[in-house]
Amino acid sequence: MAQEHLLTLNAGSSSVKFALFARGDAALVPVRSGQVDGIGSGGVANHAQALQQVLHGLGDVHIGAVGHRVVHGGTRFDAPVRVDEAVLDAIAALSPLAPLHQPHNLAGMVAARQAFAVVPQVACFDTAFHRSMPQINQRFALTQALFDAGVRRYGFHGLSYESIAQQLRAQHAALAGGRVVVAHLGNGASMCAMQDARSVATTMGFSPLDGLPMGTRCGRLDPAVVLHLLQDRSTEEVAHLLYHGSGLLGLSGVSSDMRALEASALPEAAMAIDYFVEQVLREIAAMASALRGIDALVFTGGMGENAVALRQRIVQGAAWMGLQLDAQANQAGRATISAADSPVAVLVLRTNEEAVIARHTGHVAWGASA
Q: Does the pLDDT of residue 141 top 90, yes or no?
C-alpha cells in the first residue's frame, strides 16, 4: 500500500502555498513545499487550476488528508474543524471581516474538495490561538449586545504564534513559561503577548486591518477618520484605501516592501521606516504592559526573520525595557541576538505555519496517533 501523505494549502488572492508531509510511524515528515503564483494571469485562471499545478508537481503520491489555513474563525471556530458544507457557509459569512484573505482561503478549500472528493479536509483558523485571551482583552468599549453579536478583538496570525509557542516549549522551556512578546513582522504585521505560551493580548482586533501599520494596510486608525472619509467617498473606495493604499506604501509613495524602502534615497521612504519602527516600539510596550513585564522578545515573519537593520533599530529603541543587542549575532542572523548579560532575551525564530496546520489536520483527520 502506498505511503499516505498530508497536504497543507494556504490560498491567497494570486498564489497557493503548499507543503507535503509523509505520514510516519511517530510523526509527520516534511517532504516538499512551494507555491504556485500568478492566479488570474500567466495561464493560471483560478485556484482549481493552481491546485492542479501543485498536484502535477507532486507526482504520484497518495493524499490522505488536506489542511487549510483560514484567517477568520469568528466566535464559532476556536479549534480546527473538518470541512463540510455548513463549515464552508460559515467561513464564507466571515469574508467581510477579512476581505483580503477569507474569499481566497474559501476558494482553495472548494478547489481541494473538488480534487479530493472523499479525502478529509480540515480548516485551521488564525483566530483560534487568541481565544485564550481574557475577556477584558477581547472587548472594545462598546455595549454587551455588540460583544455578544461578535464585535470584539479576535486577533490574527495565530498559526504563526502557535508555531513560535511550540518552538519556545521545545527549545527555550524557561522562557516559554514566562512573559514573551512575539513580533510577527511581514507584509502583514502584528504582535502577541504570551504568558505560558498562551495568548494574553494582541495588536490586531476585529479584522486584520488593526494594530501595526503593514505593507499596504493602515493599522490602528482613529475611527473618526473613517467617518470623515465616508463623507465624500464610497465604502468601496475607503476600504480600498485602507487595505491596499495605506501602510508603508501609503506613507512612502514608493513601495510596500521594506527592502525597497531601505534601498531608497527618498526622504519619504526613510519616514515610512521611522514611522513603522515607532509604532513597533509603542506596541512592544503595550504588550509588555499586558503581561506586567517582559522576559523575551521574539522576532518572526518575513521582516522579523530577515531585516537586520530593522531589528537593530527596534531593540536599541527598546533598551529602556532591558533589551540589549549583540550586534554581531544580529548581523549573523543567529537565533539569539541579545547580549549575554541582557535582562531580556531577544530571539529570532522562523515561523512554520505549515507544520502547525499539518499537526492539527492529522489529529482531526486521523486521530491522536497522527
A: yes
Type of residue found at 297: L
From the list 191, 180, 187, the residue with the least C-alpha distance to 281 is 191
Q: Residue 115, class by beta-carbon neighbours within 10 Å (0-12 exposed, 13-18 middle, 19+ buried)?
A: middle
Is 222 annotated in the active site?
no
Q: Please count the CA atoms within 13 angstroms of the CA of 301 that sit on its side-chain side.
A: 25
Residue 369 predicted with pLDDT over 60: no
CA dihedral 292, 297, 300, 301 (to 10 degrees): 60
Does 4-125 match 173-348 in CATH topology?
A: yes
DSSP string, 130-157: GGGS-HHHH--SS-HHHHHTT-S-----
Nearby residues of 24 by Cβ (< 8 Å), 6 or more positions away: none
Instruction: Measure the CA–CA gap between 359 and 326, rounded to whole angstroms.
Output: 35
Q: Tell me the domain boundaries of the chain.
A: 4-125, 173-348
Measured CA to CA, the distance from residue 6 to residue 357 in angstroms comes to 10
C-alpha to C-alpha distance for 327 and 81, rounded to whole angstroms: 44
pTM to 2 decimals? 0.95
CATH code that applies to domain 173-348: 3.30.420.40
Of 37, 60, 78, 126, the active-site residue reads 126
Under CATH, which architecture does the 4-125 domain have?
Answer: 2-Layer Sandwich (3.30)
pLDDT at 326: 98
